Amino acid sequence: MIKYIGSKRALLGQILEAVGAVAPRGGRVLDLFSGTARVGHALKAAGYAVTANDHNAYAHALGTCYVQADAERWAAPAARLLEDLQRLPPRPGWFTETYSQQARYFHPDNGGKIEAIREAIAGLHAEPELEAVLLTALLEAADRVDSTAGLQMAYMKRWARRASNPLMLRLPALLARPAAGPCRALRAEAEVAAAEVACDVAYLDPPYNQHSYLGNYHVWETLVRWDQPAVYGIAMKRAECRERRSAFNSRPGIGPALARTIAALRCRAMVVSFSDEGFLDRTALEALLRPRFHLRVIAIPHERYVGAKIGIHNPRGEKVGTVGRLTNTEYLFIASEAPIALPQAAE
């Protein structure tokens, strides 16, 4: 899966245990801010009927691939198409000019290859699930040859070593449909999805500071939407990165937005992931949850993403700002209308 700030790869065991403490195996789980769908994918593998939701197009594609699409239906046709797509020669155009020449996210050879494959996918007019599998394969292939420190707020002054590797498509790790039933992916604002989806447990991993995921991964948004947007700045961000603001990326806005979302949920239990780097502290989150739920809290020390160690550089190779702390604390808030059996959890 793609490099992603806030990825829960290292916390999957604890998250699955937390969900299992408040939901029956084979129950319905809503992953409300699904991002890369890493958690939704793990929940599907564990046998839950998962609904993955995210308002960004790239995240919806990942969720459709890793949560909604079933291996028994799509693995074989996707593998055949990926072989054909891999053989395409580069076809540089707007994407290559923007993200390989004006900006330097990808070596021009790979930029042209990405562009050729994306044009071909668009021309297939494939079923939504199949298209999502192909787009995910392309996103992940591009991620393996990018020239960033992990975020698309900037790119390296000199090409990263991996940027010279040839772009190679791989079939994503699709899962079979669980016995609990079909899974699905939605693209909606969190509060809307919360009100529409009935579930046994909701998993919430909301944005927690001023940095929006759209701004951090704007190239992936453009690659999926394939819309040649107006761009700005050295980073060539989509214009909507400064026009589309989320309350979750606002210190005064996040508390009310999260409270509304929690109130809208149609479930009897939830698991909330949050970092001590966020706009809300542990006390504030407990205050949102305790009036309605039994609550347990797990605190997990966690290394920050690799960019925190490297630092962010401008196109002249100069560090922008200074490196801060290298570890943080990730919290899992386990909330249920029924008592919670999780002996190792520390309140």
- The largest sheet has its strands arranged as 3-2-1-4-7-11-8
Helix content: 40-55%
* Uncertain runs: none
Structural class: alpha/beta
Q: What sequence of helices (H) and strands (E) makes up the elements?
A: HEHEHHHHHEHEHHEEHHEHEHEEE
Total domains, how many?
A: 1
| Strand residues, percent | 5-15%
Distance between the termini: 33 Å
Cα radius of gyration in angstroms: 20 Å
Number of helices: 14
Largest sheet: 7 strands, mixed
Count all strands and give the number. Answer: 11
Principal-axis shape equals globular
Overall mean confidence score, pLDDT: 92
3D architecture notes:
By secondary structure, this protein is of the alpha/beta class. 40% of the residues lie in helices and 15% in strands. The protein has one domain. The chain has 14 helices and eleven strands. The protein has a seven-stranded mixed β-sheet with strand order 3-2-1-4-7-11-8, with helices on both faces. α3 crosses α7, α5 packs antiparallel against α6 and α8 runs parallel beside α12.
Task: Describe what is shown at a glance.
This protein is an alpha/beta fold. It has helices at 12-22, 38-45, 57-68, 71-86, 94-102, 108-124, 128-144, 190-196, 213-216, 218-225, 240-243, 251-264, 282-289, 306-310; strands at residues 28-31, 49-53, 184-186, 201-204, 231-232, 237-238, 269-275, 294-303, 312-313, 319-320, 327-336.
